[in-house]
Amino acid sequence: MEAEAQYAEAKRLYEAGQLDDALRAFEQAHAAYVAQDDAAAAGSVGNDLGVVYYLAGRYDDARTVLQNALAAFEKLGNVPGQAKATGNLARLRERTGDKDGAEVDYQRAAELFHQVGEKGFEADMYRALSQMQLQRGRWLEALATYDRALAAKGGSGALRGFLQIPLRLLGVK
Q1: Cα–Cα distance between 51 and 63 in angstroms, integer?
Q2: pTM surpassing 0.90?
Q3: Distances (CA, A) of 153 to 2, 117, 123, 126
Q4: Could you give the CA distance from residue 138 to residue 135 in angstroms, rounded to a whole number?
Q5: Within 10 Å of residue 136's Cβ, how many Cβ atoms?
Q6: Nearest to 70 by CA among 98, 94, 42, 97
Q7: Sign of the Cα pseudo-torsion (68, 69, 70, 75, in order)
Q8: What is the pLDDT of residue 160?
Q9: Residue 154: phi, psi to the nearest 5?
Q10: What is the per-residue pLDDT for 145?
Q11: Residue 13, Cα to own-chain centre: how many angstroms?
Q12: Which CATH number fits the domain 1-77, given the four candidates 1.10.260.40, 1.20.1070.10, 1.25.40.10, 3.30.70.120?
């Protein structure tokens, strides 16, 4: 089966909830694109493969393939790909206990999503970062970050105004 068809089958299997079969199909599609020296497609499939590895609990494999996908996207200048891979790495780092690395990656992913106008994903990254900051006892940073999430989505003016009161009182805004 050629790479494109294998990739389509992998996505179909994933959507059908057949994680083990999807994993094998993503691995085959990724290997085929690597063999074809198609860095863009290998990066895209690698990003998806990293997510499936993550869901399967194969964190080391996920980290390796996501870092490779990110490197490919950086080399190609593919900012949307960089944003997705960085966001996926952030979630992986958070799950595996690398809170500092996760915060850096969430911030970077939000900035990259902002560059490409993906407001929904930008807001998602800021919300995840805000939640981590809150869990780590940094409530003021969490509040400021959540405000950025609302701003990215064009959030409620009343809620943003309410959230900004303590920030203004403390000289943050």
Answers
A1: 10
A2: no
A3: 40, 11, 6, 11
A4: 7
A5: 13
A6: 42
A7: positive
A8: 46
A9: 70, 40
A10: 85
A11: 21
A12: 1.25.40.10
